[in-house]
Amino acid sequence: MRLSNYYLPTLREVPADAEIASHKLMLRAAMIRRSASGIYAYLPLGLKVIQKVEKIVREEMNRAGALEILMSAIQPKEIWEDSGRWDVYGPEMFKLEDRHGRDFCLGPTAEEYFTHLIKGEVRSYKDLPLNIYQIQNKYRDEKRPRFGINRAREFSMKDAYSFDVDQEAMKVAYEKMHQAYIRIFDRLCLDYRIVEGDSGSMGGKASNEFVALAETGEGVVVYTENGSYASTDENAKVAYVLPQAQDQKDLEKVHTPGVTTIKDLSHFLSVEEARCAKAVDLLVEGKPVLVFIPGDRELNLVKLMSFLDVPEHAIEMMDDETILSLGSHPGYTGPIGLDQDQVQVIVDKSLTQIDNLVLGANEADYHMINAAYGRDFTGQVAEDLLLVKEGDLSPEGEALLFARGVEVGHIFQLGTKYSSALNATFLDENGKEQHFWMGSYGVGVTRTVAAIIEQNYDDMGIIWPMPVAPFEAIITIVNTKKEDQNDLAFEIYRQLEEAGIEVLIDDRPERAGVKFNDRDLIGIPLRITVGKQAGGGIVEYSSRKEGENVDMAYEEALAHIIKEVKAQRK
Ligand code: ATP
Ligand code: MG
After folding, report:
1. CB-CB neighbours of 381 under 10 Å
2. What percent of the chain has pLDDT over 90?
3. CA-based nearest residue to 184, from 411, 501, 414, 440
């Protein structure tokens, strides 16, 4: 490809709204342009990288026996009603209505749609196992679209769905996808961890997330040095260490003027933070809920969502008016004396084992001290609502380490959740109707591109790993006015193309400095510079990663490139 014929409007300035490296670099390298919040257009260079990622994903899915299909991005409401997810997805779903008043959505995922597709057509156990997938844009009206295509509202996802006769067969299908994902992310040269995942609104039991390590990642990987445990922070079980046991004293109400934070309360009363119960005042589906946890911990919202079996959008902070209407006071809510017909009280199990608790007295400027669960208050006890923190121990007692990362893939064992909801059945060996056992498997194709950049850049630009590089080699003509430089450069170009190398030639009548900057920015792995020594057949050879320029005969540079590329293509 001649750069003079290409569309590569690179930017020198760093766009103001871009916070993380991949977002900045994708804009600067003319890979993407923003159309609206979380909505992007892909320019030639960006699209080329996406297609390379897609190709690897396709090859590995096909190798694992999955079949590619393509569904519509527009999905009818009815199939989502059968599973109950039309409401569960809530405001994250882009909804639309046609001219006849029928409701549709832009698909955020497609468990229902795929189940609906095969229902009634896949009739016999003999037609199973079946694994079908698509690579298609998905739509989610994210609360906080950010970081460019990392958390977008329109993004490309590979989604696959497996259908099997029973649980065991489902697990086999899941394991196949697990292995396929390892091959995919290895081939994409990502540094990633496989962790136990959160099933969110997908339902089902087992799930694993593939998380690319990156300091700018929104997710947290919790793991042990010896690899015995790896989880997301949302999913990690907390082995809470109780404060020291004490003799239980009598309940007492104390004056704590203006003291509302745990820190101040702990100071004011000279009581450890752990003993000062933290109240989280919420409205869940509009109804008041108070959650109590030890004061030295944070509430894990995902665990609460699964305890209450509600989606995130069903949970909001309780307003002061509601708190007052319960006979309590903002900043001083506590479980003692509240009418539990009016408010649901949830207590983290750890609190039931802590002596001499400090609780809000439901009255301005007052707290209760020396409270005990069972004696002074009760509630619905939840096994574990705590967010893991550094210093905690794994279930096996190993120290937990934290790393930030980006979720690039997610695989789920769904069981019969969707086949039951949509009543999708097949006839088993005995002629009996059975629900399909399902799995679903996602790769965030566009997000993966951003994750690769997060792991491969320097202050000059992107450093593409060969398998996803938009071009494998670039030839830069230092001065296009010089005939010998043009001639040699185009001869090298011809020979590289003939050898099947994806090569870009910078034949633009620009200053050499501009071309070198662009070359660094767009990160093409192998490079030949044709300059003053062109007459003698000498060029400069370098790689984007190492940077160092070496003079050599052009034939030698050619041979280097062909060898390098072929070695990495295997
Ligand atoms: P997250 O926790 O990051 O919101 P998710 O759990 O909602 O992701 P899944 O429903 O598992 O995501 O979707 C499968 C894959 O699609 C994810 O692993 C991720 O790579 C990608 N993905 C999800 N949401 C987005 C988004 N808003 N922008 C880009 N990619 C996304
Ligand atoms: Mg997920």
Report:
1. 14
2. 93
3. 411
Tokens matching residue 284: 């869940």
Number of other residues whose CB lies within 10 A of the CB of residue 483: 10
Query: Over 60: is that where the pLDDT of 42 sits?
Result: yes
Lowest mean pLDDT among 37-51, 202-216, 514-528: 202-216
What secondary structure letter does DSSP report for 399?
Answer: B
Model pTM score: 0.91
Atom of ligand 1 nearest to the CA of 202: 10
Which residue type, as a one-letter code, is found at position 1? M
Separation of CA 562 and ligand 1 centre (Å)? 37
Question: How far does CA 233 lie from the centroid of its chain?
Answer: 13
Chain Cα centroid distance, residue 199? 13
| pLDDT at 172 > cutoff 90 | yes
Q: Over the chain, what is the mean pLDDT? A: 96
Cα–Cα distance measured from residue 233 to residue 206, given in angstroms and rounded to the nearest whole number: 16
Ligand 1: lining residues by beta carbon, under 6 Å: 109, 140, 142, 151-152, 155, 157, 200, 407-410, 442, 444, 446-447
Q: Nearest to residue 74, comparing CAs of 100, 45, 103?
A: 103
Ligand 2 centre from 207 Cα, in Å? 9
Summarize pLDDT for 77-111 with one digit per residue, the tens.
Answer: 999 999 999 998 999 999 999 999 999 999 999 99
Question: How many angstroms does the Cα of residue 167 sit away from the middle of ligand 1?
Answer: 26
Whether the upstream peptide bond of residue 129 has omega within 30° of 0, thus cis, is yes
Crossing angle of helices 44-63 and 167-187, in 10° steps, is 140
Q: Which of 26, 80, 79, 98 is nearest to 450 (CA)?
A: 26
Number of H helices, E strands in the chain: 14, 31
Beta bridge partners of 425: 435
Considering only residues 498 and 202, tell me which one the structure prediction assigns the higher pLDDT. 498
